[in-house]
Structures are given as structure tokens and as C-alpha cells.
């Protein structure tokens, strides 16, 4: 089990107990009125137990996604083509880990300890984004992640940064600044391959073909299937539905791929000019649920790496928490 010894605020147990017993209708009405006025909810404010539970779930999954998401690209740091691409990739991977820290901090304000969150990740209880359960086989995979997965994340994060929970929104705003840089480096790498040699272009097209379905899955199941959207949108945690975000992503990024002469592996993909909506082949949602529940090609490998990091880092956390051992640590 995780025995990190991070310092985190003790949750207000009395407040948590009260919320869990029942949601006082008067307090609920004041809370919902604040949300509809666009006010931010802060950690010390009263909130319904379900709001706390849903936010904890969502922010925690987001934090895990950043940490696990650093792994596919991280394996390419030693193999990035050239000094500048290597520098940019190192910085990006560090940023993703930093985003994980910001998000764990935001989730901790809701009362769940970081230890409990890490335990739930390592035991496979908590989810993280489906896309990070696929391998990054070539440099073109890293390019597709850097452009399209960061783009998909930006669509989601820019919208939700205007949401109702203060600590999550502030973390998302900061993350979005860094993600915008990631997107630019991803686009630059994508253009280099798309306009490079035939072999580079083929490698990119192959990566795009393999990543397309996971990227379509990234925004979550269709609105008619999504379990949490209705409540989360009512409480302005999610500022757009899964299908709306998917549509926004297609609208912005498909033309950028087509203009580079790339194709997408869906013969039905097109924008309906009358409705303004994109139409596409429904991705395989059974596969999506299999992947997010531990059955993807890399789930085991990803968690094994995190368990290894957990074990190997235990002595550092222990030493940092113990003043006597801290004095004995070498000074850099
Ligand atoms: N992957 O009711 P629904 C990054 C689950 S990392 C896995 O629609 P919700 C980056 C969902 O949890 C940024 N699971 O859910 C890092 C639920 O299961 P549970 C990643 C998914 O929450 C490194 C069930 O399906 N971004 O940018 O209303 C390198 C039903 O779904 C997924 C975030 O994490 C999925 N894709 O909406 C490069 C954004 N989709 O919990 C880049 C934060 C759904 O009931 N998350 N599920 O067992 C969200 O905004 C929302 O969770 C979602 C789904 C829109 C994804």
C-alpha cells in the first residue's frame, strides 16, 4: 500500500458527516442559486454530498490521467529525433506530472487524501483516461499524442475551467496555458512529418489510423449513455456534454489534418452543413468500456510502472517526513 506521508489538510469530518446524512433542502437551494449566478464554490463552503463525490471522482481521474499520461511520451525522451525535440519533450513530460500535482491538490480540498487516491490508482479501482492504455510505437505516435490528445484535452479543459468549483477551475486555467504550448510543439512535429519524406508521412498516417478511435473515445460515451453528464452539467462542473466537446474537437482539428493531406479512418466522417454537426461512424463503445476497466493493451504495464515508482520512491518520502533522516540526506 501507498505509505507516502504527504501532508494534506484533514477533512472537516463533522461537515462531511452532515452532508452525507442528508442534503438540507434550504442549503441545497442556496447552493444551486449560487451556481446559477455563476459563483465559485470554495472548499469551506457547504456543498451537497453528491457534488463532493462527483467532483472528487472527476478531478482524481483527471490527476491520474496526467501522471499515467506522461508514460507513453516519457518512453520517447531518449529517442526523440534531435536535441530541440528532446528538450521540448522533456519539458512537456515534466509539465504533465506538474498538472497531476495541481489536480491532486485540488482533489484533496474535497477531503480525500492523496494516499487514498494513489492507493485507488495502484489497486486499479480508480480510472484514468482511456487513451493512455495504448502503446506509443513510433515517433509519429508521440506526435499524434502531442497534437491531438493535447488538443482534445484543451477542448475539455478550456470549457470546464469556467465551471463552479474554484480549486479545479484555477488548476485548469494554469494547465491550459501549458497545454497550449504542448499543442504548438505537437503541431510543429506533425507538420514536419506530414511534409517530410514518404516514409515519414506513411509513419504518421499509420499512427493517426491507430489513434483515431481512442481519440474519439476520449470525450466519453455518447450523451444518451453518459451516466454523470446531466447532474454535472446542472452543477456546472461539466460545461459541455461529451458529444458537444467531441463535435467542437472535430470542428477545429479535422480541417487541420485534411489540409496536410492526411486522412482519417472513417469513411462516414463529414460535417453536415445543414446542422453544423459532424457525423461519423459510432466508435466501438464495448471496446472503450473494456479498456477503461483494465482490459486495454497497456493497462497492466502502466500500473506496474507506477507501482515500481511507488516502491522505489518510498525511502525519499519517508526521509522527507522524518526530520532526523532529512538532515542525513545529501545536499545537492
Ligand atoms: N477515459 O458519465 P460519463 C492529458 C468513464 S490528460 C476513461 O460520461 P463523466 C494529457 C467515466 O469516468 C487529461 N474513463 O463520465 C496527459 C465513467 O465511469 P465511472 C485527461 C472514461 O465523468 C499527458 C463512465 O465512463 N482529461 O491531457 O461525466 C499527456 C461514464 O462516462 C472516459 C480528463 O481527465 C475516458 N476518456 O465524463 C498528454 C478530463 N470517459 O467513473 C495529455 C476530466 C468517460 O462512473 N474528465 N469515462 O466509473 C472529464 O472531463 C470527464 O470525466 C469526461 C467523462 C468528459 C472524460
UniProtKB/TrEMBL annotation:
Which GO terms of the molecular function aspect are on file? Answer: phenylacetyl-CoA 1,2-epoxidase activity
Cellular-component GO terms for this entry: cytosol
Q: Which GO terms describe its biological process?
A: phenylacetate catabolic process
Q: Which InterPro entries match?
A: Aromatic_CoA_ox/epox (IPR052703), Ferritin-like (IPR012347), Ferritin-like_SF (IPR009078), PaaA (IPR011881), PaaA_PaaC (IPR007814)
Q: Which Gene3D superfamilies match?
A: 1.20.1260.10
State one Pfam family annotation: PaaA_PaaC
Q: Which PANTHER family match?
A: 1,2-PHENYLACETYL-COA EPOXIDASE, SUBUNIT A, PHENYLACETIC ACID DEGRADATION PROTEIN PAA
Under what name is this protein listed? Ring-1,2-phenylacetyl-CoA epoxidase subunit PaaA
Instruction: Please give the organism.
Output: Chitinophaga rupis
